[in-house]
Amino acid sequence: MALTMVEIPEQKLYDGNRFPAVISPTPTPAAAATPRLTETIQANKQYIQDQLLKSGAVLFRGFPVNTASDFNDVVEAFGYEENPYVGTAPRTKIVGRVFTANEAPPDHKIPFHHEMVLYPEFPSKLLFFCEIEPVSGGETPIVLSHIVYERMKDKHPQFVQKLEEHGLIYTKVLGQDYDPSSAMGRGWKSTFGTEDKNIAEQRAAKLGYVLEWLDDGVKTIRGPIPGIKCDSSTRQRKVWFNNIMAVYLGWKDDARNSDPEKALAFGDGSPLAADVIYDCQKILEDESVAIPWRKGDVLLLDNMAVLHSRNPCTTPRRVLASLCK
Q: How far is residue 190's CA from residue 224's CA, in Å, rounded to a whole number?
């Protein structure tokens, strides 16, 4: 099944590889139907995998993927095992292995993060699908984690050394119920799938969390866990694998008394320097690629190699997601 590597203005070049790689159908005679993405994947699995390994991200553009069911077929075509979602982001199951992307209010920017970085088992790959393209904004910016690590190590070597030696402790306050006005979304009942505090504690412990109950919610404590990891699939290079930006820019919630500066510490208990964190945010923005969504786009990400975020948008916008092992 023929496919074509194309170039678009937003791509960046790293080590001779375009980021992201962009794959479109090979042009066909006017009377011929555009090949389905499922068939293209099945016929070119090794080639696509090679592109993902080299680039970290692959955008499929111009294929007839129109509905959530079409996208679910695409997910199945890759043959990756499903990775269930665990976390506090508000999401809704649509069909099969397909969920909504984070349903935080559209005027909120979702900071750069890796998916489920706080959990023992995190997805290896992420797939996104644009069902309804936004009127404006709403891009899903992406950035290579090893580039962020290298630039941070050059600019803030002591910070990075401490991060590698001690890891991070994350503290988050969860309310009881879902709060649609908050990017943190879920309360502890939906996060742990129970209204029983004892069961919640058991499930939290399996995920490596300690719970401290409050009058109107619970404080969750996780760590120390690594803030830098080694990506074994890409020549053992180190990657920036943490939720520092998500905590500092996305965990503020007055209703839950969540203070980003108290939510994150090095593994030895010492605080993180805010000026260094905002330097990191600038690096993330400088190195990121933000491609405007088009209806039918499918984006495949290596979750360890690439961080992603979401720009504010004008609705309607509907981007769906699937997580894979």
A: 25
